[in-house]
Amino acid sequence: MPDWKDKIRCSFCHKKSTDVEKIIAGPGVHICDQCVELCNAILEEERLASSTEPRLPMWESMTEEQILDHLPKIAAVQAQVDDNLRDWVGHLRGRDVSWERIGASLGMTRQSAWERFRSET
């Protein structure tokens, strides 16, 4: 079984946790210390410039190749979030929480929750 450190990646730059000093976990997402530093630098630059322009490349300013290169990163983050969600649902099922309550929490029916997560519990 792989170590959790091999599985966790930054949701922003997609670096492995073993390639950075620190990973901070959120609800299904993670951010590395390097991305936090970059965010802080962007916020400071914007504060000094009093700019409200977005710093991330928007679709309109990206080439098709840049967008295509970005898709695998988005898919990897989605897979990481899905894995984390399955872990949380599995923990709830371990506590005998009903599919009805889990589904209601996720905004879906009991049946939909069961169909999506049943194989993981």
Automatic annotation (TrEMBL):
Q: Which Pfam families match?
A: zf-C4_ClpX (PF06689)
Tell me which UniProt keywords the record has, alphabetically.
Chaperone, Metal-binding, Zinc
Matching SMART domains: zf-C4_ClpX (SM00994)
Query: GO molecular function of the protein, one example?
Result: unfolded protein binding
Enumerate the Gene Ontology biological process terms.
protein folding
- List, alphabetically, the SUPFAM superfamilies matched: Glucocorticoid receptor-like (DNA-binding domain)
Q: Which InterPro entries does the UniProt record give?
A: Znf_CLPX-like, Znf_CppX_C4, Znf_CppX_C4_sf
- Per UniProt, where does Zn(2+) bind? C10, C13, C32, C35
Q: Give the protein family.
A: Belongs to the ClpX chaperone family.
**What is the protein's name according to its record?**
ClpX-type ZB domain-containing protein
List the source organism: Nonomuraea turkmeniaca
The record lists the lineage as: Bacteria, Bacillati, Actinomycetota, Actinomycetes, Streptosporangiales
